[in-house]
Structure formats: C-alpha cells, structure tokens
Amino acid sequence: MSKALRFLASMGVVSLLSGQASAQWVSQDIHLRAGWNSVYLEVDPYPSRCDLLLAGQPIRSVWTWDPNLSPVQFIQNPSELIPETPAFRVFYPPGQPRSFLTNLFTLNAGKAYLIEASAETDLTLTGRALLTEQSWLPNSYNLVGFYVDPNSPATLGAWFAGSPAHTPLDVWRLNDSGVWEQVGNPNVAPIQSGVAYWVYSNGSSTFQGPVRIQIPTGFVLDFPRLLTSQSLTLDDLRVGARQVTVGIIPSEPAPTVVPEDPSSEVFQLAGDVPLSYRSLIQGGTGYFNYVPLPAMVDFAAGQTAARDLELAVDRMQMVPAPPEAVHQSLLVVTNGAGFRRYVGVLAEGPNNPGKYNRNKGGAPASPQAGLWVGAVELSKVSEPNISPVVLTETPSHFNFRFLCHVDRDGVVRLLNSVNLYWREGTTTTDPVSGQTTIVEPGRYILVTPTAPQALLNEIGNTIKPGALRDGRPFSSRVTSLMYPLHDANGNPETPQMTLSGTFGTPGSTLSITMVEENTDPVNPFHHQYHPEHRYPEPGETVYPSSDFTIAREVTLTFLAADPAGGQTAGLGDSEVVGTYREVLTGLRRVGGSVPPVVTEGAFRLSRASTVDQLNDGM
User: Which CATH class is domain 370-418+480-617?
Assistant: First the structure.
C-alpha cells in the first residue's frame, strides 16, 4: 500500500484568520468551525495551560502530533481517535468524563494542533513571537505550518523550492468538504497562514523556509542592561539576486498575569525598543554608522553564504519607564515573495538595574550607576616657556586606564582598583514539604581596597569569585596606576570630586582635585637617575631633594560625539566619551619651579557593571 493511501483519512474543516500582529506580544485570531480543525500556532500563547487558555470555549478535545513517539503511517478517522493513538497527545477540558486521560497540558508556538469544536467559535490568542525551529521526522509525514504573509502568501512550490528533502513535494490539506486531499499542483497552491499541513520528508531535513533566521541565543532577541548590540543572521535560499527586509513594529500591551499560571516572561511594557543597524555610509573613503530600521539585506546572484545584520539598541531614545518595566517590540522579516516572520525583541531600559543587580530597596538607581572602565589618550601638552598657555600636539600619544564608579544617587568616585565577586543568595527549606524558597537572590558585588574587614572575611565563604577562567573560579580585577589615592601618611584618601550636570550627559563636567604626595613611594618624580629626584637612603626620614608634592586638577568634559570621529553602539548609555584635561602644579627644577603643565586628550569609558554600590553598601 502506498504511503498516500495509508495516510489518507477524513477529518474536519478549519478557517483561520491571521490578525494584525504587533509585538513582542502578538494576537492571533483563529476561527473554528464545528467539528475538526487543523491549526498552526504562530504565537506562544499566555496563559499556555490548555485548561486556562480554552476555558469557556466549545472545545471537546485538542490533539497534537509528537514526532518523538512514532512516525506517521496512517491517520484514523478523528471520531475514532483515542488517547492511546500512536504519536498523538490529547487534552480533554476539565469536567469531561475523559479528562483524566489528558497528557497534553500546554499550547506552544510553532506547533500544529487538531482541535475538535462542538460549535463554531472564534479564538484570540495573545502570546509572544518566538523564533522556534521546525523539526522534521525523516521518511514520514510531518504536521507543520508556515510563516507566510497572509496578504501575499507564497505558493507551496515556491516555498519548498530550496529543499531537496521535499522534492518531489508531497503535501496534504483539508478541502471544503472536510477531507484530507493531496495538493495536486503545489506551484499554484497558495499557503494559508495559520493552517497546518501534512508534508512528507524524504530523509532528514533542516528546512525552515525560504529565509532562515538565527539569533545568538534563545528564542527572542534579548538586550539585557549591559548588552548594546548583537547580530541577526539571515540566509535566503532562493536563487538569483534577492533581498530580505528587516523592519520593526510596536508591541501590543502585555497580558495580565494569571495567578494560576504565573510566568517570569510577562514583563510590564515600558515602550518600544529603538533599534538601529550598522551600515556602510558611502562617500569619500566610506565609514560605518548606525541608522534606524528598516534594513535591506541584499544577496547577490550565486551567493550562498548567510549574512549578519548587526543591530544596536539606542537606550538614550527610550521613553521614561518604571525600573521593572521592559521595552518590547517586534522585528518583521520579509522577502517580498510571501515570507513573513516576527522576532520578539526585549531590552532593559536605562533605569533598569539589570537582571543580576536588582536594588535591595529604596529609590531607583541612577541611570548611569555602575562601574565605568576605559582609557584616556593624551595627545597635547603645554610649552612651559610660552605664555599664555599653548597646547602642542605630541609626536606620540600617552594612554592610561581610567576607572570610576557611579552610585545609585549619581555620586562619582575615582578608583584605582576593584574586584568583582558574587554574593550567594539565601534560602529556606520547608521542614514538611522539603521545598526550598529563595529569600534573597544572589548578586554581584564590587570590592575595593578600602572594603571593611567584615566584608573581606566573607570572601571564600558567602562571597565567591565572580567569573571563570579556564573553567576555574576567578575574581576579575581592574586597576589603574595613575591615581594613588592616599594621603601623606599612606592612609586611603578620596579626592575632591565635583560633577556639574549628570554623568555622561553631553556638556556635563567631572572635576577631580588630588595631590601626589612628596612622600608617596610611587611618586613618579622620585627616582634614582638624578640627585635632585632620588629616593632617600635607608634610615633617612626626609627627602634631601626638592619637594615634589604635585597638585593635580583633572577635568572630564562629556561630549555627544566621539572626538576621534565615528559612532559606536550604546554611545551615551553604555559608553561615554569626551575630552580630558589635566593641570599639574608644583613641578620643580634646579633653581626654581616651573609653570603649571597642562595636558589634554580624549577619553572613552564603558560600563563594566551596573552594581550601584561599592563594598556591598558596608
């Protein structure tokens, strides 16, 4: 008996209308006729539990094919389906006599379902657009659906043109009489959006449609607080010159959380995700810049390699929102030939402290709170014998590391060393049920050399290294040698710091006043190469040479654009730039002192952590 005869059976009728979707959250409208319906879910509905999602609907049963159970050899008449049917799982609504046989508990995106309705009805399912992949069972029929543009759908023949595993194409669909029939001419048969088909796979297949979309991880494009850019990988399997378009649309409101089915994925909607993409700007020598979506990704004739589209979130364009809210949108990927797929996009906003750095209470942290690490490049210096001060470009530039911390109140502190650790959370265990409950989740902490001894004593116990190196726990450490930060007696000292405006905001300035003590053992003007600068001999209590106490006045002026030119992702949010100016007073030479020395250059700082307090607030 041929596989077609073994497969053929009578089923029901389905009519599905694809609603206009805008999301990370999408609404899919489904029209069910009385009897059996074949449905393909393009959204991951919330709530996902069948009993909650379908409550009050005239649903007798819901069936889904599970390719892990057995290949499809034949399909029985739906009226004869029983829970023991090979390769099928079933849901019976609560209250039905057979509900205890239920082994299908949730409905999910990218899955096909056979739904038996007792009366005609309409369903509206709100859910997330997940980038799931279709799994194919080799040498078997597969119950699948397709992400097509309902306004201009592709034909079945055009859809599968790039897949050898589906040649010749063997597809079955429900006709108006409710009978499964083979599609006679796939090259002219349009695909119905949201409808499931039986498609035979000749051997193994990884086919996902004429356009394949890949993201770095997970099922949505997620931008946590410290992540600014990531790539969307696109592959167009058609022949000849072709083009894929990537656009973006707003999100529908997030659904109300159902107490019976709580979900950590239902975030309060903060607003849209402002995304741009990295593009080569022509003209002159050409340069890269970030421009708003949509993006047109071209594939030349004969090109078989996939292409990466770098996307960046511009948090400076986000609307104000509560710290716990998340910005949400939806990418729309089309190829102009009937393919359309949504990809959910999430982004934590400027006021969001980050997944692992939640505040322990109190007011929300400053949007710029965290550890900032970067570099200063000095390129100009004053001529000591010229008045007024004239800055001259140096033959070579001098680079050094700069690090500072902004606390939850926006107060800036200069640092010369900091370590990243992980503080373990605390839990309680119910003595009866044995269930463990998290009392306080674990979190990252930043530890400086001035940390209290009580905190240092916890290292190795409740405080662990915050990173891994070669598979072993490792405490990340960042240092800078430019600022000693201690007084004449060697005690820790915090320099005077004045912030005019807001850290990182263009036009704001950060002024730092500090003193390089003459007794500082690392004072760079003390060395053994000149008698006026030498270190004291053993037993000497004072320096016999000149006093090299140096006053340092540092000014950082924040700018909207990089002084070096170009544009980077996250500028103004996870990265700040500007000019650096330092005045050194107190330098001496034989016979007297020298005028103040002025140096100037540029700085670039990146946020390395959103932890908004040092030494765990101790």
Answer: mainly beta
